[in-house]
Write a structure and sequence with these properties.
With 147 residues, the protein is an alpha/beta fold. The protein has six helices and five strands; from the N terminus they run βαβαβαβαβαα. It has a five-stranded parallel sheet, sandwiched between helices. Helix 1 links the parallel strand 1 and strand 2. Helix 4 packs parallel to helix 5. It is globular and about 45 Å long.
Length: 147
């Protein structure tokens, strides 16, 4: 599995901390702190890299509150992004909803909490129970509609 990571200026410090703690994170930007940059630019770069091998890729997005990057990421077909705030929440998001991108609120989590979330993101597995598969199938129908 490839793990891509990106942030805006509000998540830059957290992104750099995570890169130092986890050797398998591929940084898709920014490469340096840029005050006032825009998170959609980095969401696009992260998703573009994930889409090269989507079944074997996951993403970590970081901004101030986790919402902006989550909204932007979910605009892309095949991306199931969710903002998360704990390792238990992350575990549920993966086992039930098979998310492939986590969105972290850098301002509201401590570094140790974020590290636990990343560890969970890397180890938890989707549980393909019938109800989960049925619901994700319906999400796919919505994703492919013309609405």
């Amino acid at each position: 599995m490839k793990y891509f990571i990106a942030s805006d200026h509000a998540g830059f410090e957290t992104k750099e901390l995570l890169k130092a703690s986890f050797e398998n994170l591929i940084d898709t930007g920014p490469k340096e702190f840029i005050m006032g940059d825009d998170y959609p630019d980095y969401v696009f770069l992260l998703v573009k890299n994930m889409k090269k091998d989507l079944p074997n890729s996951k993403g970590i997005l970081i901004c101030k509150n986790g919402a902006g990057v989550c909204i932007a990421a979910n605009k892309f077909k095949g991306i199931r992004a969710a903002a998360t705030f704990s390792k238990n929440h992350t575990s549920s998001l993966i086992s039930d909803d098979n998310i492939n991108v986590i969105c972290l609120p850098s301002e509201y989590l401590k570094p140790d909490e974020i590290k636990q979330i990343i560890q969970t993101f890397q180890t938890e597995e989707f549980k393909p129970e019938n109800r989960h598969l049925r619901r994700l199938g319906k999400v796919s129908i919505i994703e492919n509609s013309n609405l």
